[in-house]
Specification:
Oligomer: single chain
GO molecular function, one term: arylsulfatase activity
Helix content: 40-55%
Strand order of the largest sheet: 7-6-8-3-9-13-4-14
CATH class of the largest domain: Alpha Beta
Family: Belongs to the sulfatase family.
Largest sheet: 8 strands, mixed
Number of helices: 22
Keywords: Membrane, Transmembrane, Transmembrane helix
Radius of gyration: 28 Å
Strand content: 5-15%
CATH superfamily of the largest domain: Alkaline Phosphatase, subunit A
Protein name: Sulfatase
Length: about 700
């Protein structure tokens, strides 16, 4: 070994050696991730059609993302390598030792940091690693449930030791540094006490509540009311929501029209059916996205309310449709963003570092596999901080915790999964676009694991409810706020034999029913349960009525406030029809039962397009008519549920008695022809004639 290799380097040389070692390590990690994880799919759904389209049409986006990824790897490698190199310089290691130990130290820090992020968000890594090999699957299962902070602390050991070593060497070589350190310490102590005093002074001020009640809507995508412990569910999934229900009024049977997020939220906010408002399905085009809407937000804004919405992954529609909120904090869902997102998630070595600087890769916050409500909670507090004290606020908080793949973070993640389960749904699942003929048949253990992941997600959202409540209580705004709990649709969890997800069919009730709870002391009865069926149309009129704000003339729903006000038990209102419809079918080859009773049209990859100037994903205009004529439709009225299912051979009609058959398993249309005829007339009258064609047409 040459003598110079055994001599300690100068600080400049040590920094250079550390940078080289770190850069080499992280470029190798980039190369491994790029080679081993070359895929471009969405939540496990991959398509050669999409891959070819992305490369041919969006090549610049791909190349720019590659440049960003390489730049991030290089930056991390250079900074971490330089830090470790400086520490080894302080320890007077040789040049060779500085290089090799810096590289080894980078690997150690990377390993511990990845372990911490995997322990906190295993679903994020499961998207790439769980199905890769038994080794990576075992690693994820082993880290799940462990304390993330322990791994994070271990990752900090080498960097902290490096800093201490450098400071120690400088102090030992110069008395001047002792004075500087003492001065910094004294300044930090003074600043700390000053900040504490300021914090106490600020905290002592009480908020001056406005004369009119505030409004807070708390919602989670796909939240099923029958999975709330306060509604009799066996697991303790919702202590904070249960408390809210005990203090307010709950509507036990609330039905949405279209069980998909964008059309359902538009109905909730406009009190109009899809077809009366332009968001008739998930993939509407530019004209529908830019149409002027009269909503709950615009009605409250006209009355002096400060309106805002804060949402995560599934709430992209709030930034894409003009609902009238004055403050919007929600992600986008444009195709270039989707490409960047799917490329980033395959770089598992970089993912833990993006958590340290989320602003550099904002697409991390839009992962469907990452529905940790902590960032959402932070944004909610920021929005509340900006609300004026002299005006009431109306705030919608929309979480994605209960949306597939049901990615609860630590400590909720995995807490309900059966110990020892090693199947494909250990870390949740997403509906498949195409059946894998080689996949093993779904087992009862798989279904149980899926439900367990969902329940952990419910508990995660419940924690957000409790956190927002605590924040408003500290501000003195909780009891003068009308609190509303709801969702945009329910969720099928394979537990009824009706598949997974939402929006594809109308069988059963799991995908159509949502929680609807209101709480306002003195204005809403506490502990009341309302059996009267409510519709998503009725939510906005009810909320405005409870706030004493007049509803716009365009609202089609009716107020149910009389059923929630304090006093003696109110009389039920007359039954009214509740329209239900399916959304766009994303696939024609997913193997689900509805495929046998539907009008055929190709799958999403053939009927959708990407607008070149906006990057929005929309239905091709020529498929608007066939898609809307093919949708299943139905109506709830009284004890009955009627379905009309268009097929190439005509419309198939089904009838269910929801009183004697609450699971809606037995078609009794043949036993009640008069009921069928009456309900079909009601359905025809209720359906908006939005297609411009005669109702009942079933051809493509």
């Amino acid at each position: 070994m040459p003598a110079f290799a055994r001599t300690p380097p100068t600080l400049a040389r040590a920094l250079l050696l550390g940078c080289r070692a770190g850069l080499l390590v992280f470029l190798v990690l980039y190369t491994l991730c790029a080679l081993l994880n070359m895929q471009l799919g969405y939540q496990g759904n991959e398509s050669g059609i999409v891959t070819e389209y992305v490369w041919n049409t969006w090549r610049s986006v791909v190349l720019w993302q590659v440049a960003r990824l390489i730049g991030a790897y290089c930056t991390v490698g250079l900074v971490l390598g330089a830090l470790l190199g400086a520490g080894l310089w302080a320890a007077e290691r040789s040049r060779r030792a500085v290089f090799w130990l810096s590289g080894l130290g980078c690997l150690v820090v990377e390993a511990f940091l990845m372990a911490g992020d995997m322990a906190r968000h295993p679903h994020l890594y499961a998207a790439t690693l769980y199905a890769r090999s038994e080794v990576t699957a075992a690693l994820l299962r082993g880290l799940s449930g462990t304390q993330p902070s322990g791994w994070y602390m271990a990752a900090l050991v080498l960097p902290v030791l490096s800093v201490l070593a450098v400071v120690g060497r400088w102090l030992s070589e110069s008395t001047r540094w002792r004075g500087v350190l003492g001065g910094v310490t004294a300044a930090a102590v003074v600043a700390g006490f000053t900040g504490l005093g300021l914090a106490r002074t600020a905290g002592s001020a009480e908020a001056s509540a406005p004369a009119r009640p505030n409004l807070l809507i708390l919602a989670s995508d796909g939240l099923r009311p029958d999975h709330l412990s306060g509604n009799g569910y066996s697991r303790a999934t919702s202590p904070n929501i249960d408390r809210l229900m005990g203090e307010g009024t709950r509507f036990n049977d609330t039905v949405v029209q279209v069980p998909r997020t964008a059309p359902s939220w538009t109905t909730l906010l406009t009190s109009q059916y899809a077809g009366e408002h332009p968001v008739v399905h998930t993939l509407v085009g530019r004209e529908a996205r830019e149409a002027k809407l009269t909503t709950l937000a615009t009605a409250l804004g006209a009355q002096g309310y400060r309106t805002a919405v804060v949402a995560d992954y599934a709430g992209d529609h709030f930034s894409r449709f003009p609902y009238g909120f004055q403050v919007v904090s929600a992600p986008d869902f444009r195709f270039p963003d989707l490409v960047r997102q799917r490329m980033l998630i395959t770089h598992v070595a970089l993912l833990p570092w993006t958590a340290l600087a989320p602003g550099l890769f904002k697409e991390r916050g839009e992962f469907p596999e990452l529905t940790d409500p902590a960032p959402l909670r932070t944004r909610v507090r920021h929005v509340l901080d900006g609300m004026p004290e002299n005006a009431p606020f109306a705030l919608v908080v929309f979480a994605s915790s209960t949306h597939f793949p049901y990615a609860a973070p630590w400590p909720q993640e995995g807490q309900y999964v059966e110990h020892g389960y090693r199947g494909p749904w250990r870390f949740g699942a997403t509906p498949r676009m195409e059946v894998d003929p080689n996949a093993p048949a779904t087992t009862p253990e798989d279904v149980a694991a899926l439900g367990a992941n969902y329940d952990a997600a419910v508990r995660t959202f419940d924690g957000l409810v409790g956190s927002v409540r605590s924040d408003l209580e500290r501000r003195g705004r909780w009891d003068d706020t009308l609190v509303v709990l709801l969702s945009d649709h329910g969720e099928h969890l394979e537990d009824e034999g009706l598949g997974q997800g939402h929006g594809d069919h109308l069988w059963g009730s799991a995908g159509l029913r949502i929680p609807f709870v209101v709480r306002l002391p003195g204005q809403v009865a506490s502990g009341r349960e309302v059996a009267q069926r409510a519709r998503s149309l009725d939510v906005a009129p009810t909320v405005l009525d409870l706030l004493r704000v007049p509803a716009p003339e365009s609202f089609r729903g009716r107020s149910l406030a009389s059923l929630a006000r304090p006093g003696s038990e109110p009389k039920p209102l007359p039954d009214v029809p509740a329209l239900i419809e399916t959304d766009v079918w994303f696939s024609d080859r997913d193997g689900q039962p509805y495929q046998t009773v539907r009008m055929p049209y190709p799958w999403l990859y053939e009927i959708a397009m990407v607008e070149g100037d906006t990057g929005e994903i929309a239905l091709k205009p020529e498929w608007e008519g066939p898609v809307r004529r093919a949708r299943h439709r139905g109506v709830y009225l009284g004890r009955w549920k009627l379905l009309e299912l268009p097929t190439p051979d005509g419309v198939r009609v089904q009838l269910f008695d929801t009183v004697s058959d609450p699971s809606e398993l037995r078609d009794v249309a043949g036993d009640h022809p008069t009921v069928v005829a009456t309900l079909r007339e009601k359905l025809a009258a209720e359906l908006p004639d939005a297609t411009g064609e005669a109702r009942g047409a079933v051809g493509p």
